[in-house]
Amino acid sequence: MGMNETPSANRIHIGIFGRRNAGKSSIINGITGQDLAIVSDIKGTTTDPVGKAMELLPLGPVVVIDTPGLDDEGELGEKRVEKAYQILNKTDLAVLIADGTDFPKKEEWDQLEQPMLAQFAARNIPYVIAVNKSEELSPQKKEQIFSFLEKEEKKLFVSAKSGQNIHALKECIAQLAPLAETEKRLVGDLLQPNDIAVLVVPIDSAAPKGRLILPQQQVIRDCLEAGVTAVVTRESELSETLRSLSKKPKLVITDSQAFEKVSKDTPPDIYLTSFSILFSRYKGDLKQQVLGAKALCQLKDQDTVLISEGCTHHRQCEDIGTVKMPRWIREFTGKDIRFAFTSGTQFPKDLSKYALVVHCGGCTLNEREMKYRLRCAKEAGIPMTNYGTAIAQMHGILDRSLAIFKDTDSGLGQ
Hints:
By secondary structure, this protein is an alpha/beta fold. Among the domains are: 8-176, P-loop containing nucleotide triphosphate hydrolases (Rossmann fold, 3-Layer(aba) Sandwich), CATH 3.40.50; 188-278, Rossmann fold, CATH 3.40.50.11420. It is built from 15 helices and 14 strands. Helix 13 (367-380) links the parallel strand 13 (356-359) and strand 14 (384-386). Helix 11 (286-294) packs parallel to helix 14. 41% of the residues are buried.
């Protein structure tokens, strides 16, 4: 990702759904004005969900997701359809494509399209139905299809081939886009202009060469937009950095792995929190994850803890998810804990086998998917926390890491 690009997690995610050969890929190419998706007359060309970050005027930065056909067949086909449904977890708005020249009969519609529409409604996903290949349809056929869809509020005929109504479809998508009631901030609402925030960024074997990771980039950007001075240092230089500043910082923000040392080196009259905790408040439910962190104290021998990450990355020898976190949890609880691991789009439907879910900060997940995972845990009655709140709890500094939210009246959850 370039430094000037909006992170995918902060973009509106548009899911494109429909049967094979309905023209999903052609519609995507039409609305984006680019050949982003492979187009073929062979059914099942799109075998896995494919997302593309781009600018879609008049909406702005989006991720457009092409999905496998809802009518895919066979054992592999069923798995592809399941992947299409999984995309709903991150879909902010949806476009359901239907082939006007082979429009489904009622019983066929009720078998595939209607269940998908029901999922849109259940998840509060705004959607539009686009009937493709309109250039081949007679007025009588169009009237018949519109009559069938009379109860659907958003519907229109389009043609990926001729470009008919593609602009209207883009306008409709823009109108459906969810609008935030207030601008959400990572850290800008906790600080005042000209405040100083010190960001502690460890540079170890797990740090990417030549760049900062996404959470660090985003917090720095939010500080700058709020008129806050961001000072970046390593944990080994934190004490000297604090001594060298002529003005006392308002807040120290640390990578969670350095929480213990940073807490010792940060004077008690300076607020302290972590990048992970900031992201919990930004796109999750900080209150739920704080309660989840406190559930660490109730773990018993042979309990299984799920450690889940939103991205996939190369595992280092001291990887936080698979190595450090299990070690810290065993040391903190003194119990013989078992662990399971997931990453990327994988997140279990059934959480009943787990005593606790510990999630990463979720910087690569959009808000809808992060809240979906939290909701799954809440509905299953399974406590869920994230790296930052869990590490703060295990080091006895959870209350301190939450003090700035309480004192600035910014709340502990959504």
